[in-house]
Specification:
This protein has helices at about 40, 105-120, 125-135, 140-160, 165, 185-200, 215-225, 245, 265-275, 290-295, 310, 315-325, 340-350, 395-405, and strands spanning about 45-65, 70-80, 85-90, 175, 175-180, 205, 230-235, 255-260, 280, 305, 330-335, 380-385, 405-410. The chain is α/β, with parallel strands linked by helices and about 425 residues long. It folds into two domains: about 40-160 and about 395-410, Enolase-like, domain 1, CATH 3.30.390.10; about 165-385, Alpha-Beta Barrel (TIM Barrel). The protein binds N-succinyl methionine (SMG) and magnesium ion (MG).
Length: about 425
C-alpha cells in the first residue's frame, strides 16, 4: 500500500470532466432548479417561515479529540417552510467553540438576527443566490451552510431532483472510513479498531495529540493486517517545532496526516510538508474555495478534507471538489458527527468523482442508538447514496420531538 504523493497521477472516475463549477452548467437533466417548469421553482423559493430546532442526541460512546470530549450532540436543525414545500438543514457547529470559532448558540443567534432578515428581504430567492445575499455577513460559515442546505433541500424536493444528481454524483454508494477517538489505553484502542474493521470500515482514522501519537499508531499497524488504510488527525494540536517528531510517523505508511498545525498557519504547513513524507491533509484551515486554492498553490497540503459546514455550504464544497479535481488533488468527505440529515447530504457529496478516499461518513450506529432519519447502514464498507428528491431522507418527527430542547419559528413579515 502506498500513500498519496503529490506526483501520483490520479485515476479520476468516469465523467470527471474538468469543468469550471457552475450548477447550471452540469450535463444531462441537472438544470431543474431554475428551469421554469413550475411557478414554485421558476424564480427560486419564497420562504414563509423557518423553524429552528435544537435537539440533544446522545452519542453511543464518548468521542475524544485533541480539543475535548463529545458525549452528546447539541444539534441545530433548520427547517424552512416555503411556497413550494419544505426543506431541512443541519448546522454542524458544536456546543462549544473548540473545533473552530463557531458554536451552536452563536450560530442560532446569527441565523435569527443576521441571516434570516436578509433572506426574508428577498421576495423569491434561488438557492444559488443565497451565499451572495449572505456575503456581507463575515464568517459564520456553519450557520450559513445550514440555511443554504435547507433551501437547497426545499428547492430540489419541489423540483423532484436528488441532491446527488444536482451536485454531479457519479456513484450510487460511497466507501466509508471511521474516525477513532483518543482512548484511555492501547488495549481499548485495539478493541475499538478491531470492532470497526470487523464491521467492514475501509479506512481507520486515529485521533492523535502530543503524548498519543507514535505509540498508538505503531501498535495499530503491528496488530492489524499491513494493508489496512490508516491515517491520523491532530486537530491542530502540534506546532512547526514538532516537525521532526511528526516525521517519525512516516515509517507507518499512513495515507495522510490531517491538520497537524493551527488553522491559520498555511505557511507552516507548507514548511512541514517539506520535512514530512506523509501527505499533509487540511481540514480546519480550508474555509473556502479561495483558501483551498492558496493552500494547494503554496504546497500547504496535497489532500483536502471537505466539510460543507466548514466552507459555508454544499455549493462551495462542490466548487472545492472541482478545483481540486482540476489540480489533481484528491479529496474526501469529513464528518462532524452529523445526524441522518447531514449524513444524507454528505454521502451525496462524497459520490462526486474526485472523492477518492473513504470519508468520515460512518453508519448511523457508529454515532447514535436512534438516528432522526432511517438509519444509514454499512454494507460491504459502503453507504448507499440517497436517490430521492432533495437530501433523499425523511426526518422522523416523533424522534425529533422527543429529543427537542428548544424550538423557535421565525416568520416572514409582510
Ligand atoms: O463524523 O465521524 C464523524 C467525526 C469525524 O473526526 C471527525 N471529525 O476534525 O475531522 C475532524 C472531526 C471534527 C469533529 S470532532 C467532534
Ligand atoms: Mg479533522
Amino acid at each position: 500500500m502506498g500513500g498519496i504523493s503529490n506526483a501520483r497521477p490520479l485515476a479520476c472516475g468516469r465523467g470527471a470532466s474538468r469543468r469550471a463549477w457552475h450548477p447550471h452548467r452540469l450535463a444531462g437533466g441537472m438544470t431543474e432548479l431554475r428551469r421554469p417548469t413550475s411557478p414554485a421553482t421558476a424564480s427560486g423559493l419564497r420562504v414563509e417561515a423557518v423553524e429552528l430546532r435544537r435537539i440533544a442526541i446522545p452519542l453511543v460512546a464518548p468521542f475524544r479529540t485533541s480539543f475535548g470530549v463529545e458525549r452528546q450532540r447539541d444539534v441545530l436543525l433548520v427547517h424552512v417552510l416555503g411556497n413550494a414545500g419544505e426543506g431541512w438543514g443541519e448546522c454542524v457547529a458544536m456546543e462549544e467553540p473548540l473545533y473552530s470559532s463557531e458554536y451552536a448558540d452563536g450560530a442560532q443567534r446569527v441565523i435569527e438576527e443576521h441571516l434570516l432578515p436578509r433572506l426574508f428581504a428577498q421576495d423569491h430567492l434561488d438557492v444559488t443566490d443565497v451565499a451572495r445575499v449572505l456575503a456581507p455577513i463575515r464568517g459564520h460559515r456553519m450557520a450559513k451552510a445550514a440555511v443554504e442546505m435547507a433551501w437547497l433541500d426545499a428547492q430540489l424536493r419541489s423540483a423532484g431532483q436528488s441532491l446527488a444528481a444536482y451536485l454531479g454524483a457519479t456513484r450510487t454508494s460511497v466507501e466509508c472510513g471511521v474516525s477513532v477517538g483518543i482512548m484511555d489505553s492501547i488495549p481499548q484502542l485495539l478493541d475499538a479498531v478491531g470492532t470497526y474493521l470487523e464491521q467492514g470500515y475501509r479506512r481507520i482514522k486515529l485521533k492523535v495529540e502530543p503524548g498519543w501519537d507514535l505509540e498508538p499508531v505503531r501498535t495499530v499497524r503491528e496488530h492489524f493486517p499491513s494493508g489496512i488504510l490508516l491515517q491520523v488527525d491532530a486537530n491542530a494540536a502540534y506546532t512547526l517545532a514538532d516537525a521532526d517528531h511528526l516525521a517519525a510517523l512516516d515509517q507507518f505508511d499512513l495515507l495522510l496526516i490531517e491538520q497537524p498545525l493551527p488553522q491559520e498557519e498555511l505557511l507552516a504547513h507548507a514548511k512541514l510538508a517539506k520535512v514530512v513524507r506523509t501527505p499533509i491533509c487540511l481540514d480546519e484551515s480550508i474555509v473556502s474555495a479561495a483558501v483551498a486554492t492558496e493552500a494547494i498553490e503554496m504546497g500547504a497540503c496535497s489532500v483536502i478534507n471537505i466539510k460543507p459546514g466548514r466552507v459555508g455550504g454544499y455549493l462551495e464544497a462542490a466548487q472545492i471538489h472541482d478545483l481540486c479535481l482540476a489540480r489533481q488533488v484528491p479529496v474526501w468527505c469529513g464528518g462532524m458527527l452529523e445526524t441522518g440529515v447531514g449524513r444524507a447530504a454528505n454521502v451525496a457529496l462524497a459520490a462526486l468523482p474526485n472523492f477518492l478516499l473513504p470519508g468520515d461518513t460512518s453508519a448511523s450506529d457508529r454515532y447514535f442508538r436512534q438516528d432522526i432519519t432511517a438509519p444509514f447502514i454499512l454494507e460491504d464498507g459502503r453507504l448507499a447514496v440517497p436517490s430521492g428528491p432533495g437530501i433523499g431522507v425523511e426526518v422522523l418527527r416523533d424522534v425529533v420531538d422527543g429529543l427537542t430542547t428548544s424550538r423557535r419559528v421565525v416568520r416572514r413579515v409582510g
